Each structure stands twice: as C-alpha cells, then as structure tokens.
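Entry 14. Structure prediction run on the chain below.
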Amino acid sequence: MIFDAASTFDGTYPRPQLVREQWCDLAGEWAFAHDDEDAGVRESWFAGSKAGTDGDPFARTIVVPFPPESPASGIGDPTFHPVVWYRRTIRQADLEAAGHGSTKRLILHFGAVDYRASVWVGGRLAGTHEGGGSPFALDITELVGRGVDAVVAHDTVTSIVVRAEDDPSDLSQPRGKQDWQLEPHVIWYHRTTGIWQPVWLEAVPPVAIEQLHWTPNVLDATVSARIALSRPAPDGTELSIALAFEGETLGSVRVPATGRSVEVTVPLPVQRNGQAYEQLLWSPEHPRLIDARVTLGDDTVLSYLGLRSAGVAGGRFLLNDRPYYVRSVLNQGYWPESHLAAPSVDGLRAEAQLIKDLGFNAARLHQKYEDPRFLFFADTLGLLIWGESPAAYEFTPAAVTRTMREWTAIVDRDYSHPSIVTWVPINESWGVQHLAHDARMRDYAAALVHLTKALDPTRPVISNDGWEHVDSDILSVHDYEASAPVVAARYGSPEAVGRLFEGLGPAGRRMLVAGTRDLNAPVMLTEFGGVSFVDRAHEVDGAWGYSAASSAEDFGRRVGALVEATLASPVLAGFCYTQLADTGQETNGLVTDDRRPKIPIESIRAFIAGPHA
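Output returned:
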C-alpha cells in the first residue's frame, strides 16, 4: 500500500519523510541529575546505578523530551546548570517494539540535544555529537547484544546514559534567543539544555536507507531522488521507488544499487500534459503531496514530497513560476510550559493551523531549528516556511565552524520539505555585528550563501535578514516604525524604496554592504509591527514591544493600520509580521503565549489577507 502522507501519518514518528513502521518511542520518564561540579565523567556516572562517590547520583526524574528548565520536564529549574545527565533502562519490550532481531542493526536516534552530547550504552561510549538543533543517530547493536533472542531472561537489557553540556557563557555556540544572562532580558529568554526533541529506537537491515532527498523538476516532469545508505550495497541489490497521488500510481523505477549513495530520476508521464500539469503542484492553497515508497533490499521506508518550485524574478517571489505575495508571521516556537520543545504533537499541528487561520500563508521560523513534525504539518496544511539559523553571538573560528557545520546538517535534514521556500543563515548581523566594516565577516556571510546554494540550488537564500545584505536573493528590511503613514510613505513608491537602499535603513544600518541593488531581487518587509498589548490576565514583568496599545481595540487599530500601509506598497513583494505569540517578556504577539488571539481571529484574518489574498 502506498503511504498516504496527509491522512495515514499522525505526526508522531519523529522523522516524517523517512518513516519505518516499527519503532520505539523513548519519551517519558528518565532518571536525571545536574552536574554543576562536572564530576560525572570522573566518577563514572555512565557505568551504572551505583556509580558516584555518594551513591546513585540520578536521584531525580525528568520527562523527556522537555528541557530541565521547563515546567513540563518536572524539573523546572531555569538557573545555570551547564552539565546535565540522563539515564533510561532499555527493556526487552523496547527492543521488540523497535523490531529488533538477530540479523538487524539497532539504531538509537536523537532529534536534538543542546548543545554537546555524549551517549553511553551499557556503560560503554556509543558516540558523541555537537550541535544543539541537529539530529544524530548511533548504531548500538554491539552494545546490547544481537537481537531479542540474545537478551537475558529478566526484563532489563541495558541502560542508556546521556551527558549534555550547554555552557550559557559560550557565545560561540549557536544559541538563537537563549539568554546568556541568568534572567530573561529584552528579546532573550530562558535556555533549553539537553534533550529537547524526540529520542527513539528502530531496527534496520545491515544495509539500510539513511537519508532521502527529493528534488522535483516541474519543467521536466520528473522527480530526482538521492538516497544515502548506511553502508555500501552488496552486488545484486536493487532499489525501487513508487510514487502515487490519492492512490493512483504516477511513476516507478527499479535500479541497481551500488556504493553508499544512489541517485535516480523518476519520470511522471501525467505531468507532460502542459494544460493539466498544475493540478498536481503543491502550494498553500492546494497542499498536494505525492506519496512515496522506497525499497532497498530488505529495507522499506515511506515518504512524501511536493511538486513545486521557488525562485525570484522581476522583483517578485515566484512559487511554481508565478508571482506569489508572501504574507508571513514571525514564529519563535516557544511555549511557556515546554520552552523550545513542543508541548505535544497536537501542539505542533495546532500551531501550523493557527497561522493559517489568522490569514497567513507563510511563517518565518525565527532563531530556531524547528521540530521536523512541524514542517510535516506545514507541508500537509499548506504553509510556506523560511528556515533560519540560530545565531552565535561572537565572531570567532569556533563560532564560524560550529554554525556552518550545523547549518549544513539542517539543510540536509530539511531539504525535501516542500513548505521550505527560503533559507536564512544570518539575522540582523547577529554574530557578525561589524559586517559593514569587517571584510572577514562579509566573506563569512557570502560563504554561508554559497554553501547553502551548493547544498541546495533550488531555493532563494538571504545573506543577512533585515539589513547589511551581502548577496541576497530577497532584499529584506526590518522596520519597527509605529506610524502607519510613515510606513506608507517609506515604501509607497519605487523611488522611495530606492532611496532606502542607497543609504541607511530604518534601524540606522546600511542596507547593502556589497555590490549594488539587484532590481530582480524582491523587496520584503520581513520584520515590522511588534505592537505590545497585555490584558490583566496575561500581565508579565518587563512586558514590552516596539510600540504599545492601550486596549484590545487600540491594538487592532494599530496592527491593522500597519498591515494596510504595508499591503498598499506597489514595491513590496511580501511581509513578515512580528510576531505570532507573546514570548516571555515580549508581549507583541497577535496571540498570547497560550495561543489565545488578542482580538477576534476573524479581524486579524481580514487585515492580514488584504487585497493580495
């Protein structure tokens, strides 16, 4: 049966574009310990429950995958704890749920551990990883024995121990909006340390599919697939791909598999009809997904993709080679009860649906590598996504290396999501504050653009969102002007926008720091608004915004007037309103931190949609 991505998959599997039927979710209660003295390795906390000089150090219980700073974790301690430890017992039932057998490899997956992780299984080091938002996987087969038949009679098989290190003072770590100060201030908030995305087990054949990249070619009526394998395929191995839409086969191929990477093109004959090809294209209005089944020898995975193209031309953003006005909202993906971790799968689904219900067709994921399941809901519900890198806050070789390594991993992870249409490796010169004057920083920004395009030539890239552009396909502007008439005048004509790009921008920063303005590049207002309004039920200490409303009615008037002024511009190709939800002391959301609209949702939808709907 072909996988129906829109209706069969419920969003629980952590990797929605490479799904296996059998897996074991390791979410739930784990033993936990802070290690403020960094004594755990020296005292061999990884060795077992009796490790440590004063008995078992794992005296507390945490709910994974919620970070220990968050209330949902059961720990709820947001103070500085640079090193934390986790322990979980693996039982025979876990191996059975994962489908482990005598001929299979057992893989332990982590969606994200912030920032540096070491993992032991049965007291032996299984592997390490650096990068707070990128996934990693470890083959732990030899550490637990060969399959269920090799397990001892009692229920306990072995233990997993994780040490996570996240130094709040290390400004070279890509951290995004996580505060380096003890208490949240201005636009930064409590940290997310350790495990904050799913952990799971799955069993795979000795030669298994590790990664899938789908590249649709709308013009050629084909889909290209690049499949990475766990190890070189033996002679005689075949790879097959079947694609279908709503149960009807669109195309299939079967090819020999050699080496550790297989590239294959699947023709889609139905797309050769030039008068009907648009009926299968993906867009926010019609989020059609192509179901996929990929088989390599004994390994079968289920996936999906969308047929669409993204680009720029003539000062407009193009979706499927047609001008498309972007109505976006800035989304930080932060919840008061769970911080950067999603409160639940339903919470991710509801977030994407809320953005749609408010009238937006896009979201900018701000300073966070979001859970892939959110991208699944963006794919299925129809929401354009701008993927953005969390910033480091100093310019050093370590910051450059760490950012580029993790950015590479995330572009690889998210390459196939049709919802992602733009990449944003730098925001507002964060981590490169002297970009206008330091050639090294400009070279770094340009290098990130070229790296991104080398990895993914199919999407526009913004070198530095907001100002000080080096080499951007979209010229984005951040402008928190509170007066709607001023906004209307500033973007009201090509001449006015031209003057903006010839000098200093609204924040006093140069708009261009390399070359001259490319008139083919769309201009978008990608941060504006930021109007604060807090009712008595949601008052917080230090509440602020870029401007403030005195009542719900005043809030609606201010936001509506700013959006109307933006929509009236004959030059702007889109916008991104700041922001979706109140985040800590930032009370400038359209909804509160518990996702309650501050004014009727119909009112917000009416002025967000505007004449470009």
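Residues 397-414 form the longest helix (18 residues).
Filed with the rest of this week's runs.
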